Amino acid sequence: MRQLRKSKYAFFVKKENGNYIVYSSLSGAVIVFNENKYIKMLECVLDKDVFDYEDNDFFNLMIDKKIFIDDYVDESLLVRGLYEEQIIRSNTLEIMLIVTRQCNFRCIYCGQPHLNENMDIKTYDSILKFIENQINTYGYSSVYVTFFGGEPLIASENICSFLEKLQMLLSKLSTPQKIITYKAGMSTNGYLLTPQLFERLNKLNCDFYQISIDGMPEIHDKMRPLVSGRATWKRIIDNLTYMVSTDKQFSVTLRTNFNADVAESLVDFYRYIGEKIKDKRIRIYYETIKNHGNEKTPNTICGIEERVLDVDIAQLIRENNLTCVNATKKLLPCSRVCYASKPDFFIIDEKSQILKCSFALDDYNNVIGTLNENGTYRPNNHNYYNWVYRDYLTLEKCKSCKVLPLCFGKRCPKSL
Description:
alpha/beta, 11-stranded mixed sheet, 3-stranded antiparallel sheet, 14 helices
């Protein structure tokens, strides 16, 4: 007889109405059981360490979603395999370019210095040679480039020129047997993403944007003004309105940075987005405002207050039939692994330094090498190994963690 047991990475939550929510951090599956026959089947095995397999849709579903597993299976090997396949053996080279340290906004909670330092053409060309070297050495089949700053669209002409050259490079490196593809995206405040620039970038396969809007204009324009102090909300909304009016393929993650003041305006804001800009290409993400050392940072929240507002905001998003990144992507395996810990991820800044973390741009421990004009670099192996090769198997708190498959102990390597 086939013997099963409950996965150590499965959660079973009974609601007040008697229904069950079942979740697996190993597969990312969330199942709601609200029919009596399934609830009875579930409750029959909940208090058992090992139980017999039954050939029915309930058991087959639970096995398929890795909620029930065969008793002989070593789950540590399943987790290790997932880590190796998803994180270590990637076929995609990921590069983030810090194209400028300057910004056209002066967000009151921003912790970045605003420096007149921009990536020059020589560095862009060295990056193209770096990409070519990496593909020739490691056999990547795709490249994903993100642009960051400062505000990256200050350097929009250089970005477009770089993407045009990248297209030609990958076309040269591709063969009939292996077509090397690329995608691009950016974190931007959205103010300079005019219809004309959006159309141009879209033709260059730049089709992902994270754009921050902190509620309605009366709050947002205080939080995220131009350098001159002028308002920014309407211009960003106008740009978004144009984007969703097209049939172009793109994805926008609309990020809201919130404290108690911003949260008060989100009822109206998400209703506005749901009525005026609702589109399957727009997704919602929200994050609490953090104090990164800026003395102008408004009141922040944490602890219980943060958790309560987090639940309230998620409810608002659902009520307006919007897609919430927080409630979907973050439940998937590997979704909480920080990009800095991935061996195939590199940041290259305006000084030609190769880095790992975008939140520690000026930290020496973040520098893993300096790019040469020919696209080679001499690695700082000590720093690189600290970011990439700290193994979750050596962290006691990770070994017994029920959500280990979400982050593998690499939620934030900088904090380890």
